[in-house]
Design goal:
The complex is a heterodimer. In chain A, 40% of the residues lie in helices and 19% in strands. Chain A is an alpha+beta fold. In chain A, strands 8-5-4-3-11 form a 5-stranded antiparallel beta sheet. Chain A has a 4-stranded antiparallel beta sheet with strand order 7-6-9-10, with no helix packed on it. A two-stranded antiparallel sheet of chain A has the order 1-2. In chain A, a hairpin with a 7-residue loop joins strand 3 and strand 4. In chain A, helix 6 packs parallel to helix 10. By secondary structure, chain B is mostly helical. Chain B has 2 domains: 123 residues, Rna Polymerase Sigma Factor, Chain: A; 61 residues, Arc Repressor Mutant, subunit A (Orthogonal Bundle), CATH 1.10.10.10. In chain B, helix 2 crosses helix 4 and helix 3 crosses helix 4. Chain B starts with 13 loop residues before the first helix and ends in a 12-residue tail after the last helix. Classes of the chains: A alpha+beta, B mainly alpha.
Chain lengths: 286, 204
């Protein structure tokens, strides 16, 4: 029997029907949610009863809304776009994929409705050692990327680039033995991002807020191997978007390795030109 | 645009689930027009639900507006393994509608801040997948197999936004009885839906 959040598994079973219907007192809803998020028991009763709830919604007679409502909604969304208020999808996915709790990540979004609970994701989130680091970093990333939400329609290709880069990082971080690192400059307003290191030597990173490179200049990524030697992993140039990404193989493997980024006059550097533009230490990503 | 317009309300097959997900992906990517597609597809279900819960056309307008703006804002949070886009949208509408009526009810304690909607758990569940293809008529038939007190408990909890304790007081029924009516009502509904397996599927 688990006693978490002040509730036992038996308590949760007793409250399950009220919970899935949303018919508990606010503090009870909260306690059940907390219990489910951290309990290792399957609580199949919650799934079983909860599966019925969508059909209560669908039992209702559909009704045609006023014609003007459509215009109101689209107008309100236009206002949202102008105000730049929106969850950053890529960063949000990154949070849930890497297992940071959604509670922390909710901060930048006022009055956010949340998708139905995913027990598996909630549970894995509580076990991930990266949880807090990624939650904090993700908020930073959201803030850093927030400007991209303005005039999104004109910047689709940048958004897609960013999404693709983050997807690459997440794929490596989530694979068995994957490690992830939050990269930062240690100063407010500097570049931020994530890197991942696979047990097979695969490597990817995605950063935003990087000053653009010019001429032959590149950013070089380094992994400090277990013996303390920085090993160059790959290089990339950055344009006006400030977005940098890299995918490479044959990176040193190991745990708690330092990943760093330097700015080099040209590709092919064998020793890093200090200072580090951004760095971080890897931790298990799943 | 919508391939569901000719279908009975509530009937959405897995092909249109996939289509919805593609539309939502476009919303996530910032395609302003994509939310219009979702609106056109689900406006009558959303408005019907909002109207049923609030009982007020003007409040229902506000609820549906908040819900679609919320869906636009948070489209990136939708996870494909958590059920259909339709279920997700209707859960947002339900949450907003319940909030709206609780706000009007001075005796009801409101959450300190806006948090998750009453969760409609849609974990991978074969039964749900099958039931998702059923139309509204099948759902109504399943509902009709519940006892009156079971239906009342679900009605007050899900559509009237009352807590179990409030229902106990209002119906002058012990709290334990309210809890078991809700639980048995949901279980009976599940059993009575076609596709629930050999032990179910016998609507009265």
């Amino acid at each position: 029997m688990n006693r978490l959040s002040g509730l036992t598994c038996e308590d949760v079973a007793d409250l399950a029907a009220g919970f899935v219907l949303g018919a508990l007192e606010p503090n009870q809803m909260h306690d059940v949610r907390d219990h489910l998020a951290s309990c290792q028991q399957p609580h199949s009763e919650v799934t079983e009863l909860g599966g019925v709830v969508p059909y209560l919604a669908e039992s209702v007679q559909p009704a045609e809304p006023p014609v003007a409502l459509r215009g109101r909604i689209l107008g309100a969304i236009d206002a949202e776009i102008r105000a730049g208020r929106r969850t950053d999808a890529a960063a949000d996915r990154l949070i849930s994929s890497l297992g940071a709790g959604s509670t922390e990540a909710k901060a930048p979004v006022p009055s956010a409705p949340v998708a139905p609970i995913d027990l598996a994701a909630e549970r894995s989130s509580r076990r991930s050692p990266l949880r807090w680091a990624v939650a904090i970093a993700a908020v930073v990333v959201i803030a850093a990327l927030g400007a991209w939400n303005i005039g999104l329609s004109q910047q689709l290709s940048t958004a897609q680039q960013r999404q693709a880069a983050l997807d690459q990082v997440l794929a490596i971080a989530r694979a068995p033995g994957g490690q992830a690192a939050v990269l930062g400059a240690g100063a407010a307003g500097g570049p931020t991002g994530l890197a991942a290191l696979g047990s097979d030597g695969s490597f990817a990173l995605a950063l935003s807020g990087l000053p653009a490179t010019s001429g032959s200049q590149v950013y070089e990524a380094w992994v400090v191997n277990p013996s303390g030697t920085p090993v160059p992993v790959g290089s990339f140039a950055v344009g006006s978007s400030g977005l940098g990404s890299l995918a490479a193989s044959r990176a040193p493997s190991g745990s708690h390795l330092t990943i760093g980024l330097t700015r080099e006059p040209a590709s092919g550097a064998t020793t890093p030109t200090l200072p580090m533009v951004a760095s971080g230490v890897t931790a298990p990503g799943n | 645009m919508s391939d569901t317009s000719s279908r009975a309300p509530g009937r959405v097959n897995s092909a249109s689930d996939d289509a919805d997900r593609a539309v939502l992906e476009a919303v996530v990517a910032g395609d302003h027009g994509a939310i219009e597609i979702l609106y056109e597809r689900y406006k009558t279900m959303a408005y019907g639900l909002a109207l049923r819960i609030t009982g007020d056309a003007s409040l229902a307008d506000d609820v549906v507006q908040e819900a679609f703006v919320g869906a636009w804002r948070n489209a990136g949070r939708y996870a494909t393994d958590r059920g259909s886009v339709k279920t997700w949208l209707l859960a947002i509408v339900h949450h907003r509608a319940i909030d709206s009526i609780r706000r009007r009810r001075p005796t009801t304690e409101l959450p300190e801040h806006e948090e998750a909607p009453p969760p409609s758990l849609t974990l991978p569940d074969v039964w749900s997948e099958v039931a998702g293809r059923l139309d509204r008529d099948a759902i109504l038939v399943a509902l009709s197999t519940l006892s009156t007190v079971q239906r009342e408990a679900l009605e007050l909890g899900y559509f009237s936004g009352l807590t179990q304790q409030e229902i106990a007081v209002r119906t002058n029924t012990p709290l334990g009885t309210v809890k078991s009516r809700m639980r048995l009502g949901l279980l009976q509904m599940r059993r009575a839906m076609p596709g629930s397996g050999p032990e179910g599927g016998e609507p009265a």
